[in-house]
């Protein structure tokens, strides 16, 4: 299957697999201007964040800002940006980070963790033989070691599923791997891989600019429901033979209208099961569900019962999507199925943004603390846990939907 770069990024990267990117390229700055940006980052985060020292101490934060300012003369521009990410990562909440500029390059791959195996599930048309391959080494390093280095730029107080989700997104940024000492030359990376048939091979991947769109190939060719229609934020499909409505819920744009179309459809068609899939939802405005869809489903007794209403969650379910999953658990009879969520239920969220004065890099920061669960847990856990498996993925199957469709009330 071939998709455009725009739809692929909207599906895979926007807060899911990698952090957001600006459209701006990095301007050419003097070392003094970069140092001013570093100082501004430290001052503004302390001033604006709800509690910037909820995870990192003031002493460590101020030390890191001063150390980066001192190191600026010996760093390249991209290294300064990544070092800034290391500072925001120590703040500890995933809504606080530095947006990477569009001028950063990309190795044209999509990677995904299946347990301890890192697989290539997408690649540009230039590298079709990589699809389905297992990554054995990245420039001689084990993928797990690379991921450990990447943890220094990812929020330090989030959970393992957050790292599983975001690590592969960062692995394809040459400037990031160069700063972390994974590659010596960011223009290319040498990968040791094993084909899906078990054959080892080496390949040198060239870094590409993201300014020019290029086509992607996704693996496998036949995609399950949840990987289809990647550019749509809210869509549904009727599985008539099962009298089941499947909802792909990726985002909140035009939500009220879309939710009403769903409700009208359910009212007009026999519906034994409603499945709301939040696996690819990176967040938005959680109040939209609370104002419309949630109360409407609570009023529909034929849907709001155990065995009829299901919510799918996973490592890419984040922020508002996690909140809405908790809402469904608390206020309906929904069964939550899938992976634990890549976000802490009780944490700092509700981000705002500011820009650094010279590089114009955008910085996100948290403005509120939310406690969505009575008990502090590292993640929202599903009622029925089904982790992604490579065997099912390469066959184009979705074990989560298979379990839901096979579920019988009273069992």
Could you give a short description of this structure?
The protein has 411 residues and is of the alpha/beta class. Helix content is 32%, strand content 21%. Residues 1-22 have low confidence and may be disordered.
Description of the structure:
Helix 2 (31-48) runs antiparallel to helix 3 and helix 3 packs antiparallel against helix 4. The chain is α/β, with parallel strands linked by helices. The longest helix has 18 residues, at 31-48. It is 32% helix and 21% strand. The strands form four sheets. Strands 9-10-11-12-13-16 form a six-stranded mixed beta sheet, sandwiched between helices. Strands 1-8-4-3 form a four-stranded antiparallel beta sheet. It contains twelve helices and 16 strands.
List keywords for this structure.
32% helix; 411 residues; alpha/beta; 4-stranded antiparallel beta sheet; disordered N terminus; single chain; 12 helices; globular
